[in-house]
Amino acid sequence: MVVKVRRERPDQRRHHRVTAPLYVDYGGYRLRAADWSLGGFRVENFPEQLPEVGDELALHLSLPFQGFDVSFDAKAEVVRDDPKSAMFACRFSELGERDRELMSHFIEELVRGSMVDVEDTIQRIDVPVTPASLEPDVNPISQVPVRRWPLKAVAMTAIYASLGLFVFGYIALLSYSNFYRMEVQSAVITAPVEAVAAQAEGRVAWTGLKPGDKVKRGQVVVNLVDNKLEREIELADVAITEEKAKLLFLKQRQADELQRMRGFAKVEMKNVEQSKLDVEALKAQLQAARNHYGRMKYLQARGFTTDEKFDDAAQKVVTAEKRLQQSKVELRSRINLAAADFGKRHYTGQNLVGDMGLLDARSSLAVNKVELAAKKYEILVKARKRLSVMAPFDGTILELPRIDQGYVRRGDIVAIIEQRKARRVTAFLTQDEVQKVGLGDEAMLYIPAVGETLKGRVSVIDRTSGFINEQEQRHRPGYNWRGPTDRSAKVVIDFADPEKIADSDTYRSGLPVVVVFPQRSTNSLMSSIKQRLSAIF
pLDDT confidence of 77, banded at 50, 70, 90? Predict the structure, then answer.
């Protein structure tokens, strides 16, 4: 008998499948399993209606061993059936641990050859030993059934080849990115931003503008109402009204006094005229007294009068002269005073009366007070205007963090204004990464939000600003050390073509940007070699 060895593909089953006797009691029938394993069994030529796939069966199994039947119960689930051959296959769902160990031991002994039937042993002794060919079957494709075609092997080979190409391509891309390019994802479009703070305590009064509105330079964005300042402005307005009332009163007094002085002036002119007449009368009296004195002197010389009468005539002449001189002095005084203080004071002959000068001084003082109160009011109004938040440049309102009529303190932020036209890209790098970037280097800017790639050029490299600000806090509470992995360095990139980002609403500040820098070598030797190679090629 020629023994033919056939080499087939390895079996993918989890357990060894054997055809040793295993009897299954089900539906009143005792059937022998066509084959079985630790996972389940298969029964052929079932005389009754086959169970449906998915049904769970309660079974009684018997395993013949050395003339004895080892019986046990188990539950199995129908996983496959074939009505043509009256076959159904089951998978064990419940199998005792002792039963499983028994079946496992039985199968292992069969596989090792330690447990065989005597008849089978005799048959094996009778089989002649013939050299067997060790060459595998040719298995021509025309004779191999379709179910045994190596489709899975081809498919897996293709998958593994694709995965290999992908892995090698990814490794090449990583190598290129790590050695020749450096990608930084911590970048953002920025624009100059001004955060305006309140200059005093007070209430916020909106002007109708809202976030997103555009403003011109010097335009009032938010008004700040300082209650104390408003009170001072109101008091200054009241003070102006009060000083004007005082001035009006003094003007009225001045007009009344002027009318009074005009009356006094008329009386004064009458008195001057009366004084002139008195002077003329005194002159006549003096002339009469002198004439009388001459006659008395003539009569005394002739002895026709007494000395007493002569002395009396001489005394009258002296008295008349003095009275005339007094009248002239008074007349001159009245004339001079009338010329100097006309309309201001009146001379009664003994005293000067009249408040016109005092009223003029008070009126001038009142005018000055009104002007000073008005200046104070203007200063307070200007101070109120200075409290208003004005746009420092043409820009866009980003945020109004305070609600209308909300209370703020000095130093609180009341408006944030952005100058959108001057936009740049700011990237934050670690201390190691910033060493590989150079001024003037070209960089690729990818903006994921709009899905566009633009070009830029490095204009500013600042390694210390984000680090020194923290260093300055080291003697104060709350200082946090910044390590080499912190992104404390800042690199500013200008857009190569500003016209492409002219739409400030699309390319607005705050959009994330992925920046790809050409990576420079930090090794002087490698840099020299790279420069020489660049010069050669």
Answer: very high
Q: Judge whether 397 and 481 are in contact, CB under 8 Å.
A: no
Q: In which residue are the tokens 């009248």 written? A: 327
CATH of the domain spanning 193-223+388-414: 2.40.50.100
- Residue-wise pLDDT tens digits, 162-198: 998 989 888 877 766 666 778 888 888 888 777 877 7
CA distance 399 to 388: 16
Kindly state the average pLDDT of the residues 516-537: 69
**CATH H superfamily, domain 23-126:** predicted glycosyltransferase like domains (2.40.10.220)
Residues of the chain within CATH 2.40.30.170 domain(s) are: 181-190+420-536
Q: What's the average model confidence in pLDDT over 380-408?
A: 78
Q: Where in 280-412 does DSSP place strands (E)? A: 346-347, 352-353, 389-390, 395-399, 407-408
Residue at 210: amino acid letter: K
Indicate the pTM of the whole model: 0.42
Query: What does the pLDDT read at residue 89?
Result: 92
Helix (H) or strand (E) holding 224: strand 220-225
**d(C-alpha 213, C-alpha 235), whole Å:** 37
- Residue 222: enclosing H or E segment and its boundaries? strand 220-225
Contact 327, 282 (CB under 8 A): yes
Which contacts qualify for 376-384: CB closer than 8 Å, 24 or more apart?
376/236, 376/239, 377/233, 377/236, 377/237, 377/239, 377/240, 380/229, 380/232, 380/233, 380/236, 381/233, 383/229, 384/226, 384/229, 384/230, 384/233
Confidence at 5, pLDDT banded by 50, 70, 90: very low
Which structure tokens are listed for 495?
A: 């857009």
Class of domain 181-190+420-536: mainly beta
Question: How confident is residue 325, by pLDDT bands cut at 50, 70 and 90?
Answer: confident
